[in-house]
Amino acid sequence: MLALAAATACTAVAAPKIKPPKAIVMIYADDLGYGDIGCYGAKGIPTPSIDKLAKQGVRFTDAYSTTSVCTPSRYALFTGEYPWRKEGTGILPGDAALIIDTKKPTLPKMLKSHGYKTYMVGKWHLGLGEKGKKIDWNKEIAPGPNQIGFDESFIFAATGDRVPCVILEDGKVRNLDPNDPIEVSYKHNFPGLPNGKDNKDQLKLMWSHGHNQAIINGIGRIGFMKGGKSALWKDEENAQVITDKAVEYINKSAKAKEPFFLMFATHDIHVPRCPGKEFEGKSQHGVRGDVTVELDYCVRRITEALQKAGLEKDTLLIFSSDNGPVLDDGYRDFAVRDNATHSPAGPFRAGKYSILEGGSRIPFIVKWPAVVKPGMTSKALFNQMDLGASLEQLLDPGKANSFRDSENVMPAMLGKSAKGRDYHVINSTGKALAIRHGKWKFIPAGVAIRDGINGGSAKMSKSPEGGSLFDLEKDPKELNNVASQHPDICEQLKAKLQEIRQRPETKADLVDLLPLDD
């Protein structure tokens, strides 16, 4: 019989009384699958720096991003709230308004209130500016990262495959010539400018689906863009550029002897995959493997900077990914061909966009030499959005949880407890939800199931009448639906999912619930 313990917004286990870290660094990779790095089983893709983190800390095997796509996972990480509770948290266009309420608690706000300088570097993809107002890319843009708790920011507005292809520093486009203003449209091209559909001769990387609008740096993008020539990025240099900025922030804070939080959100290994020349051919699995090697290099630069600054011992360093892997995600970069025998999702099935385990079961590593014993592996059930409540309890033990859905699992994060959260609600895209408890995973009837690791050619089905129940210990690939054998467990998990969905923001404020099925 399934034990249904009451799930609250804060786990009952108290955080250990530990001296706070001098630095908190989160390295957040993009589209990196559970099986894409050596310490999780990858072969032919050398990732010695990431593997070293695992040897020096705790490697989690039951950790999840909140969603199997990027924007909602990032929303949940910063807000401590399941993204499916809020409309408009799907994959955003590059000109979307900020989707985080600047009046609500956020992870960087909480850390800032405890004396940490806060830095945001890399991929943002949570919108900029006010809802209902068109973004003027030639002026300072707000609200954005600096209005939800970051002291300084150095970001891509959205993704590498979306316009505008520029970096914003503290709300202003970097290197912009005021005599060459930027215009962005997600509806129409600008007169006289080429596009990827009609001007294929100007492409150095051919698209496979979508990605055939504006041509920037010889690559077709989503959306159209005009102007800003001096501000345009070069894809092959982006990893170096953002890593340089992250190292600069580390050195600045170390010199000032200020505690800091660095959110380093890489572009690798998202499309378009354009590694620097020094990384070309460095893996046995084509360009997707090569950008993973580049990612590992960025990790090495960050860890070396911490070491040189004398901060390694007292830094809580977290490494993870925003969702599971994808091969063909819009460009003909031969990722499918070159994947060969590699298993990007490890022992799990499917990948990005899917409710199946490959969609959101991700690498998660915690290193903190002053506190965490090296070489540990944990099976604790963990959701990335638990960082909010966990860090809050570490810094202020006994404080009421500021975050709606985040849970305090700091003892598990530090390898001091085998217990993580009791329940985890899994989300793919839109309103498709499933639930984890112990070894069981339940997908309600009618929920869309994407089976495959290619963005444009995955097989689609729906969870059957009665739902889908999987024993993940025996069946990690979710091939054997045992719902008919355990109807009591199905009913209880279905009820628990509904209970979590109905959890109020406050006692007096019930949210407007989304439909359960997709």
Automatic annotation (TrEMBL):
Lineage, top-rank taxon, reads: Bacteria
CDD domains given in the database record: ARS_like
Asked if the record carries the keyword Metal-binding, the reply is no
**Entries under InterPro entries matching the protein:** Alkaline_phosphatase_core_sf, GAG_Ulvan_Degrading_Sulfatases, Sulfatase_CS, Sulfatase_N
Q: Which residues form the Sulfatase N-terminal domain?
A: 24-395
State whether keyword Hydrolase applies.
yes
Instruction: Tell me the keywords, alphabetical order.
Output: Hydrolase
Signal sequence bounds: none
The record's comment on protein family reads: Belongs to the sulfatase family.
| PANTHER family assigned to the protein according to its UniProt record, in alphabetical order | N-ACETYLGALACTOSAMINE-6-O-SULFATASE, SULFATASE
What protein name applies here? Answer: Arylsulfatase
